[in-house]
Design goal:
The complex is a heterodimer of chains A (about 350) and B (about 120).
Chain A (H helix, E strand, L loop, with lengths): L10 H7 L2 H14 L1 H16 L6 H26 L7 H14 L16 H26 L3 H20 L9 E2 L3 H8 L1 E7 L2 E6 L1 H18 L1 H11 L1 H6 L4 H27 L1 E2 L7 H11 L11 H20 L4 H25 L2
Antiparallel strand pairs in A: 1-4, 2-3
Helix pairs in contact in A: 3-14, 4-9, 4-12, 4-13, 4-14, 5-6, 5-7, 5-12, 6-7, 6-12, 9-10, 10-12, 13-14, 13-15
Chain B lengths: L20 H24 L3 E6 L9 E3 L16 E7 L19 E9 L2
Parallel strand pairs in B: 1-4
Antiparallel strand pairs in B: 1-2, 3-4
The chains are: A mainly alpha (about 350), B alpha+beta (about 120).
């Protein structure tokens, strides 16, 4: 006997079956829960009308490149948010990584006079170890002392900033901006992966877009296909239940923060070569962008909820807004206020989704 | 017996939130209004400032430009015993700014490079 396929009502059919009052309510909920996307779409349309070059190939490639550059840090912070925590030391860790990368790759080294340019794998290893250690401290205090994530990461943020400032004072540098990194290192990051021919000249896609894609795939596998990833979601959604079912909660929390640290390290390693000049303020407020991107992309502060694809969408949308405002020549000072408001609104919308859901 | 109506459960960082949905809606709408106002204010004061640091030479006036415009080439600064060797993106004069073609993309400072005269 053939089994009859069970008929699942589509959203449209479900909407039609409702009473008018319920229907109005459902439509209103839909609008409110997706308000951020609606506003972003309106901003994109407005900018595209004002300055049609915004949707040209070079501009789109630029947005994708920037998205790739910011994706690893967003994925790191995303993991912390899935644990119902957050990480506000992320930006400073990126700064630390960028300073170490630049410091070991200077052609005439003022930090370590006489030091030759180090091989790239050594630099990457140093950066990963340094940031993983910071992540370990974050994770340890969170897991063992049950301290609030904001307090722990605020402390490490300060400690890391102090370390960065001291690092920049080494040798004869005296805290000055580091520039003049080796060609090998810069090429490793920014050399064209491929070149697109457009009407307004060739546009190059840099190599770090590929690296970012590889890292994102790796994070997707870790989050979705490993026991550690499943434990992360379990601890995030209900720590006690996870503990009862045999998950090593402390180990999971510590590992999530170590992994986050390594992702910040990679962001800083790519950023030093991308920006080409590094100082103690590099990475400042990067965590704000990352947190905003995650919340927009549906990685919820409720804990245990969020996908890699959400982080990608969040970072992409945020970069589109910033690129759009950049095209309109809006002063960078306003962007801080815009970012802050976006985080507050995105959190309110996030909260609303789970308040309404019964 | 009627089942007691379940209150929506919030966990994580929202664990202690007790707020009616209507208030939350109002907060979201007010947030968006504030966002639009900030953007409008930002639109009123458009433009990026390009400053010139002549690093010991005669001062050069800052310029204001829209996104994508090239810089107006300023009168080259002068300095006793040195000759001017172009505008650079960084203080160490490692990255030359292509002043004729490169478009302004943000507020920035350009630095003068000096070469000692014999």
């Amino acid at each position: 006997m053939t089994k009859l396929k069970e008929h699942k009502p589509s959203k449209m059919e479900a909407l039609k079956a409702m009473t008018p009052a319920d229907r109005r309510r459902a439509i209103f909920d839909g609008i409110m829960n997706n308000a951020m996307f609606i506003i972003i779409a309106l901003v994109i349309i407005y900018v595209a009308i004002k300055n049609p070059r915004f949707l040209s190939v070079p501009s789109l490639v630029n947005i994708i490149s920037l998205t790739a550059a910011k994706l690893p840090i967003a994925l790191g912070v995303g993991g912390c948010i899935i644990l119902a925590g957050t990480d506000i030391s992320a930006g400073r860790q990126v700064g630390l990584a960028a300073c170490i990368s630049a410091g070991l790759q200077l052609t005439t080294n003022k930090l370590f006079p006489g030091l030759q340019v180090m091989p790239i794998p050594v630099v990457l290893l140093c950066v990963l170890v340094a940031c993983a250690l910071v992540g370990l401290v974050n994770g340890f205090f969170m897991a063992k002392f049950k301290l609030h994530p904001f307090i722990v990461t605020l402390s490490t943020q300060l400690i890391v900033y102090g370390l960065v400032l001291l690092f920049m004072q080494l040798g004869t540098n005296g805290g000055q901006t580091l520039s003049g990194m080796s060609e090998g290192y810069r090429n490793f990051i920014i050399k064209p992966l491929f070149t697109l021919k457009t009407s307004s000249g060739p546009v190059t896609v840099p190599r770090y877009v590929l690296y970012s894609a590889i890292i994102t795939t790796l994070v997707w596998v870790i989050w979705n296909k490993t026991a550690f990833g499943k434990n992360m979601y379990a601890v995030g959604s209900n720590e006690e239940a996870a503990n009862v079912s045999g998950v090593n909660v402390s180990k999971t929390i510590i590992l999530v923060f170590v992994m986050a640290g390594m992702l910040y390290g990679i962001t800083g390693f790519m950023d030093a070569a991308r920006i080409a000049s590094v100082n103690a303020t590099t990475g400042l407020n990067y965590e704000a962008d990352a947190i905003a991107a995650c919340v927009i992309g549906g990685i919820s502060f409720v804990g245990g909820i969020g996908k890699v694809s959400g982080a990608i969408i969040g970072v992409l949308l945020l970069q589109i807004i910033f690129a759009g405002l950049n095209f309109l020549s809006v002063d960078a000072n306003y962007l801080y206020i815009v970012k802050g408001l976006i985080i507050l609104i995105a959190c309110s919308i996030d909260m609303r989704k789970y308040l309404v859901r019964k | 017996m009627e089942e007691p109506r379940k209150e929506p459960q919030l966990r994580g960082l929202y664990g202690k939130v007790k707020i009616p949905v209507k208030v939350l809606d109002a907060v979201i709408v007010i947030g968006f209004i504030a966002l639009v106002l900030v953007l409008l204010l930002g639109m009123q004061n458009r433009g990026y400032t390009v400053s010139f640091d002549s690093l010991g030479g005669t001062p050069v006036e800052a310029q204001k430009h829209m996104y994508g415009e090239p810089v107006d080439i300023p009168e080259p600064p002068t300095r006793e015993g040195f000759s001017f060797a172009g505008w650079y993106e960084d203080r160490d004069c490692a990255y030359l700014w292509d002043i004729e073609n490169a478009p302004v993309q943000q507020s920035m400072t350009l630095y003068a490079k000096w070469e000692p005269r014999n």
